Write a sequence for this structure.
């Protein structure tokens, strides 16, 4: 249990913390919770820093060329198809990283 002095010190420190104030800082801190990128944040699909934007853009172009969306609904469906395909591949890669060379499972990574 915290002492009264610890509580007061914590409250004093909390008053000094105001979080990011710049647009760039707020944008960066909004992604702090992204651990694996397997879910949408606020309806937005994001690429992780280690993923290739060029490869994703090419996937979208290829699917648009293949399906030739003719209206907004079809365009949304094709773009979502690309996003879900990308997320499935991301999940498969992350899951594969949970298995160690000796065939055992890294429980901490798998729990993520």
């Amino acid at each position: 249990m915290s002492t009264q002095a610890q509580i007061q010190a914590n409250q004093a420190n909390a008053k000094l913390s105001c979080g990011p104030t710049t647009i760039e800082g707020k944008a960066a801190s909004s992604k702090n919770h992204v651990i694996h990128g397997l879910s949408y944040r606020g309806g937005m699909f994001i690429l992780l820093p280690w993923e290739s934007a060029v490869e994703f853009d090419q996937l979208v172009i290829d699917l648009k060329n293949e399906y030739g969306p003719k209206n907004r609904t079809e365009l949304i469906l094709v773009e979502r198809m690309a996003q879900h395909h990308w997320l499935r591949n991301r999940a498969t890669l992350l899951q594969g990283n949970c298995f160690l060379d000796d065939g055992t499972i890294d429980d901490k990574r798998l729990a993520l």
